[in-house]
Amino acid sequence: MFIADPRQLPLVKGFIDDWHRGVSVAEPKESVSISVFAGVMSAVQTPVTLALVILLPLLYLAMQFSPFWHEWVSSGQTLWPEQRYALASYFDMGLWSLWRPTLLHFSLLHLLNNTFWCWVLGRALEKRGEWLALIALIAVCGLTGNILQWWYQGPAFGGISGVVYGLVGWVGLRQRRDHIAYGIPPALMTVMVVIMAITIAAETIEPGLTGIANGGHLGGLLAGLILGWLWPVKKTR
Length: 237
Description:
Structural class: mainly alpha
Oligomer: single chain
Number of strands: 0
């Protein structure tokens, strides 16, 4: 037996003597302070995800006290639907105006659901050192999903669901194609796509039935799949 600290030799010998005598030694309970510290350190090791899951609730809280977000969801209102096929319309609105509704949530349930999946999927990427890819997914999937949603149903939408679907597409593709162990159930992508297909079908039958931004989901998923396909795979031992 190798002991890291020689000063603990008498204590270890005492444990062994107790074991030989048949004395039951209870395992020490883990300190709560150590557990909290370990959790904080684990969160700090995924800074992009941590910043995102802090920012989303803060903005939701700010929305309850300030109408700043009204401008965010009304961008391009005068251009839709007549100008939605004109490329100049998207340049007039600008990338920031098109992307920023990604940060808005209009119900607590929507916020909790999206924040949870951002935490789970974002940390899965960052633990593999794919923090730059995560930033690219947040930017590209949010923008692509919002552009498709604006084209499909017009302004007045929000939520980071497009990014969540982009992360699902990224993880699902790279787990299957490149056998990367993200630790995410492979069936998640199938379930998410089935849910999206059901909501699209429901909206087709009865517009406004679900109130879900299907364009944002579809655009985010497609962008995540494309990025996952093109982004080089980081080799790890």
